[in-house]
Amino acid sequence: MYSESRSQFAQSIWQTHAFFPSASLKRVIPPSVAADRLQAASHFGIERINRKAERVRTMRVAHVSSTFYGGGVTELLTPLTLLMNAMGIETDWHLVQGTPSFFASTKKLHNSLQGERLEFSETECTVYEQVVFENATRLHLDDCDAVIVHDPQPLPLISHFSDREVPWLWQCHVDLSSPFAPVWQYLRGFVEQYDGVFSLPEYARDIAVNQHFVSPAIKNGPASEGSSASRATRLKSKGKRAREIPDEPSLGGLARSLDPI
How far, in Å, CA of 5 to CA of 7, rounded? Predict the structure, then answer.
């Protein structure tokens, strides 16, 4: 049950991670202004998130990424998973393990998706898929109501859960606006096995799977004048179905506001 202690914990997470994610911002906002903004933003944000969370508070969600430390996805998931649990949504965070050759291969995929012309060899495909298969063997997700896989490193996991009965979503934090075509065609085969894809509007691709777009927010937080909540966003709808998630404090919006990409 949602309690006052949970509410206080959630507000603490919001204040610590969401509104001022970088020390540099603190130096440019006067302390008195910062305190007023922080109080208003945290109260408004937590109350709105709490109302939305009521609909999914009995769910259990699993996030899967490639590291607990460093990088934009970690900056996103650290407070998000804490906040979701504080709101009463049981949330796990699983890590894929791999060899140096695996991570060298996934780095190549990452760069190719962002437009570098890097050939992905058959040997690299084998390493990539074998390591993900080994991770799938260790993952037990039967009691989850939804699984969210982040970025290309664990992307092929879905191929090893053919008997899944819950939604699997892929959240892409990589710029897909102009990927290297051969690599994108290879990864697309995994992407289209998912029940939905979350990304930014400008990363939309022509794929046979539902796409949902979360507008970006810059690092000075969801309630600041420079954030995406204070400006219009542009969306080109592509693929089977495209839907833009509004700019407002929510679990998804908070997550995107923490993403430095």
Answer: 5
Q: Fill in the amino acid letter for 118.
A: L
Rounded to whole angstroms, the Cα distance separating 151 from 173 reads: 6
Which DSSP category does 170 fall into?
E
Q: What is the spatial distance between Cα 90 and Cα 113, in angstroms, rounded to a whole number?
A: 32
Per-residue pLDDT of the chain (261 residues; tens, 9 = 90+): 445 555 565 555 555 554 444 443 344 445 555 455 555 556 666 777 778 788 888 899 999 999 877 777 888 888 888 888 888 889 999 999 999 999 999 999 999 999 999 999 999 999 999 999 999 999 999 899 999 999 999 999 999 999 999 999 999 888 999 999 999 999 999 999 999 988 888 888 889 888 888 754 333 343 333 333 333 333 333 444 444 444 444 444 444 433 332
Task: Write down how long the chain is.
Answer: 261
Spatial distance between the Cα atoms of 44 and 7, rounded to a whole number of angstroms = 12
Tokens of 238: 């592509």
Buried b (16+ CB within 10 A) or exposed e, 68-92: eeebebbbbbbbbbbbbbbbbbebb
**Tokens 């799938």 identify what position?**
136
**CATH number of the domain located at residue range(s) 4-257 in this protein:** 3.40.50.2000
Domain regions of the chain by residue span: 4-257
CA distance linking residue 155 with residue 171, whole number of Å: 10
Dist CA 102 CA 123 (whole Å): 11
